Amino acid sequence: MSAKRVFEKFDKNKDGKLSLDEFREAALAFSPNFTQDDIVKFFEEIDVDGNGELNADEFTSCIEKMLMEVFVFCDVDGDGKIPASETYVTMTSLGKKCTEETCAEKVRAADVDGDGYLNFDEFMALVIGDI
Fold first, then answer.
1. How would DSSP label each residue in 22-70?
2. Sign of the C-alpha dihedral, residues 71, 77, 82, 83?
3. Per-residue model confidence as pLDDT tens digits over 60-102
4. Where does residue 16 fall: left (phi above 0), alpha (psi -120 to 50 degrees), or beta otherwise?
């Protein structure tokens, strides 16, 4: 699932914009660890045009940027890939509930090229795939 499809899923009234309530639901789907204050602050930061709603571009660029920051943090040696064996730690730090076994299954499914590592696209698919 792409960030654009996540946007479409949470745009409940299909008006092409996310209200704060719709964004709250999306944020909590990514990580149940967000506080209400965090969600409001985050919403205000990514509402670039300040109109009180998020359009698809604002939302998707934010999600992709956030996931890239997590990916870079996890990519310890900077080679553009994360060992699949370490993805469990990443997923649980994002608040995802999974066992090492279920996470390993998801990683195998997301590791499209089968090299035992996740590149950014594979990582993004893994993280947002459950939403």
1. HHHHHHHHH-TT--HHHHHHHHHHH-TT-SSSEEHHHHHHHHHHHHHHH
2. negative
3. 988 888 888 888 888 878 899 988 777 777 777 777 777 888 8
4. left
Name the token pair of 34.
């967000």
Q: Measured between alpha carbons, how far apart are the two ends of the chain, in Å?
A: 8
Three-state secondary-structure class, residue 72: helix
pLDDT at 131: 60
Query: Residue 17: enclosing H or E segment and its boundaries?
Result: strand 17-18
The C-alpha atoms of residue 26 and residue 104 are separated, in whole angstroms, by 24
Question: CA 5 to CA 47: how far, in whole Å?
Answer: 19
- Spatial contact of 101 and 60, defined as CB atoms under 8 Å apart: no
Contacts 24+ apart (CB under 8 A), 15-20: 16/55, 16/56, 17/53, 17/54, 17/55, 18/53, 18/54, 18/59, 19/52, 19/53, 20/52
